[in-house]
Specification:
about 625 residues, mainly alpha, two-stranded antiparallel sheet, two-stranded antiparallel ribbon, about 65% helix
Amino acid sequence: MKRLLRHFVPRNDTNRSPNGAIGPFDTNRSPNGAIGPFDVKLLILVLLFLKSFCAQAAVFHDLGNFKSIPILDNGRLKPIDTFARNLLTRFSGYDHYGKQDASGWLAAVLFNPTSTLDDKIFLINDPDIPQALGITPVQSRRYSARQLEQNARLLVSLDQEASKIPEKERSLAENEMIRVYDNLNVYTDLASCMLFAYPEDDFDHVSFIDVALKASTLKLDNHESIKIVSNLYHWSQNYKDLPLTVIPSGNDDPWTSPWDVLADDFGNVHKRRLVILWNNMTTDYLQGDEKGFNQNVELYLHNIRPMLGPQELKKLDKFPLEIFYEQSSVFSWSIMFYILSFIFFVISFSSSKTIWYNLGLLSIVAGFLPHLAGLVMRIIIMNRPPVSSLYETFIFVSLITVVLGLLIEYYNRQWLGIVTAAISGTALLFIANKYSAEGDTLKVLIAVLNSNFWLATHVTTITMGYGATCVGGILGHIWLVQAAFKKDQKTLEQTYKTILGILGVALTLTFLGTNLGGIWADQSWGRFWGWDPKENGALMIVLWTALLFHAKVANMIGQHGLAVGAVVGMMVVMWAWFGVNLLSVGLHSYGFTSGIAASLIIYAVLELLFLCITLSFIKWQKS
């Protein structure tokens, strides 16, 4: 961050224009094409702030079916509720703002943006960035658009300097600077989306859309009329390509924002009707007319259906399920029950009553049901197996580990499977939550992965192998802890046999999955094996697990060695799952993640520390 800031220091108000705005917020400049794109986008916040009637608009408690309005975002048709949740999560790390859900917050940004200027939604992890912008860092690490705009010129300069640095050479602070700038840019884009519905001085105190609807009746020999038509053109050009892509093209072309229709296709009767309905929604929202707003939303949803193709209509029909999935937070319920199960296990040490065992088992089942339901809903919504991204593989593998835990408990009935399921389910879902914070978890597949057959065979099989290996690793941890605390030989023997069985399942699945991957590679790239890092990672798991079995058969290792080997096997999985993606090379460099080298190293060090401590205790117990 220091190299980024060395040429910049927070400035006083020397750059303020006579009306108090700084740099890009200079309200003396009208949208005439002379202002840069960032200037235009930020300008509207100040323009809207001056409209006191706007700030006093009522907050809606019932948005009706607004959440179901379709929007094409990142190549996927989704309900605007999902768009809002992903956006707010990207900005703040949360899918709600205070007591307001994401759709309600987005509606305020679109229809009454000045009411959101003080919403502290911009998460800034590096305290140097707010300090550089003249903002006092706060513990919550979240700041408002009003705070960030106070030194907007410096914000632009910092972003430009950070963007000049090659991506691989940027520090975390420099990447954070770019992220903050991009988020503010998206926010100001959205705040611009309904500007056409507000009365403006450039149009004699009427709205852009009102003038556009009457443009054909204007007499161009009148100086004021010519000026208004000129302003229409400049405004329409300045507000093109905004992210609210809610107007269908009627064919395979990308969807557009209402401003794009006003600029290029306002003669299209169907599109013009949709834009007018957005204008009506804005007016109703500002006047606090919930009934009128919801009626216009219903009209919008009714008018948009004839413009959609059969595939788009099928996706539209799944919107209620997707909205329910997003709102229900099924995986959070699973985490809660898995943790509760482990708590019952801990309590059982102080009491041998059967009730704690029953409650622990019941909690695992109670967590498994929403876990399974969430995956099924994802399959229905996306019409593909739930293993197409790192986030999905985590929730899928965590489900597999819970299933294996329940199977172990069915045969063992001594907490072993319950503890395994509770630990693995909780840990993997927590890791999945980290990746859900990056935005949409229901993304469109990249071309190389777009094969339901191979996703359902190769990817599903190899990830099930990951899950089985991880369960073997957790059982290895449990065996070492049992041995360190001098458990009876019968208990150790049961755990050892369970490790052996699970590693057998892991070897079978990873070997089969690796071979299926080779067949897919042969079909896609014309070769079965190319020593690609991702392929090597899968092979590492197979070889390590096979090595453990060979060592056992040759009497080179016993129970201790197998338990330690199982723990190391889980480390091998993590490096194969994540580590090979850090190389950014090979045909699998689409590889899902980057920037986690430090986390992997910390994890490996902690595992080695665990092994040293437990093995030392075991040796001490024997002596």
